[in-house]
Amino acid sequence: VGRELVCLDTVDSTNNEVKRRAVDQIPDGLAVVAGAQTGGRGRRGRSFVSPEGKGLYLSVLLRPEGTLETVSALTAWSAVAVCDAVEQLCGVRPGIKWPNDVILDGRKLCGILTELELEAETAALRYVVVGIGINLSQEAADFGPEVAPVAISLAQALGRAPRRAEMASALLDALDRLYADFPGAWQHWLERYRSDCLTVGRQVRLLRASGEEEAFAEAVDDDFALVVRRPDGTREHICSGEVSVRGL
Ligand code: BTN
């Protein structure tokens, strides 16, 4: 991963740039890094504020074996890889808020947006784009008033931040190890994910179209779904994207 690396000053979104380049002869592992994004995208149609030189905005093109179901695992594994890279460079290990927000001091350090493209005829997986945004040196004003209370940068947390190139290199190495293992070492990465996951053992709020519901997060199952127990004792397996979950 990252042997072919495209570095841009500014782009709309590094995920978009990977998709524009993802024609069939492009091998997997292509990585795009940008200094700023003018249209950085987050999950659920949100935007991802991406000020110049303050964060690492990186996307990689992967062509994993497997089906649609394996894609959420790839995203979960990527969150573990982000924790590895941060720990290696900064000496602190963040945690993961299910399904894939990377959390430091109770606030969001990194978000991951995974998008996929299917073959028109067979609906087989053509490729996956994993887009990762890590906050390096933002201050509150860079996040804006809405995001600042829930976001954190490495500079805010530790008083210093690695350079973007250093973080990109550590992260690409971590993603490379992950991809070499995928999907064979599923159990190993599942255990690593479980040990980083902060959500299990807490009360969460399930946000559905029909309204909010309280539940207790009991476990992460073998497909990386969150197992929750409702107050009436019934259990539900929640797949990422199905409902949104509040609370760490
Ligand atoms: C989220 O937390 O909602 C996901 C945020 C993902 C942000 C990254 S930054 C690099 C890549 N390009 C994008 O437009 N989004 C992802």
Provide a concise account of the structure shown:
It catalyses: biotin + L-lysyl-[protein] + ATP = N(6)-biotinyl-L-lysyl-[protein] + AMP + diphosphate + H(+). It is built from 6 helices and 12 strands. By secondary structure, it is α+β, with helices and mostly antiparallel strands.
What does this protein look like?
Helices cover 28% and strands 32% of the residues. With 248 residues, the protein is an alpha+beta fold. It has two domains: 5-196, BirA Bifunctional Protein, domain 2; 203-246, SH3 type barrels. The protein has a seven-stranded mixed beta sheet with strand order 1-2-3-7-6-5-4, with helices on both faces. A five-stranded antiparallel beta sheet has the order 11-10-9-8-12, with no helix packed on it. The chain is globular and about 55 Å long. The chain starts with a strand and ends with a strand. The model has no long low-confidence stretch (mean pLDDT 94). Biotin binds next to α1, β3, β6 and β7. Residues 13-15, 37, 40-43, 46, 48, 57-59, 101, 111-113, 131-133 line the site of biotin.
Keywords:
248 residues, alpha+beta, BirA Bifunctional Protein, domain 2, SH3 type barrels, 7-stranded mixed sheet, 5-stranded antiparallel sheet, globular, binds biotin, nucleotide-binding, ligase, ATP-binding, repressor
CATH architecture of the largest domain: 2-Layer Sandwich
- Rg, nearest Å: 18 Å
Large-scale geometry: globular
Task: Name the CATH superfamily assignment of the largest domain.
Answer: Bira Bifunctional Protein, Domain 2
CATH class of the largest domain: Alpha Beta
Percent helix, as a range, is 25-40%
Provide the CATH topology of the largest domain: BirA Bifunctional Protein, domain 2
The small-molecule ligands in this entry are: biotin
Topology as a string of helices (H) and strands (E)? EHEEHEEEEHHHHEEEEE
| Estimated share of beta-strand residues | 25-35%
Main β-sheet: number of strands, strand sense, barrel status? Answer: 7 strands, mixed
Please report the total strand number as a whole number.
12
Distance N terminus to C terminus? 30 Å
| Average of pLDDT | 94
Strand order of the largest sheet: 1-2-3-7-6-5-4
Question: How many structurally independent domains?
Answer: 2
Domain BPL/LPL catalytic: 1-183
Keywords: ATP-binding, Biotin, DNA-binding, Ligase, Nucleotide-binding, Repressor, Transcription, Transcription regulation
Protein name: Bifunctional ligase/repressor BirA
Family: Belongs to the biotin--protein ligase family.
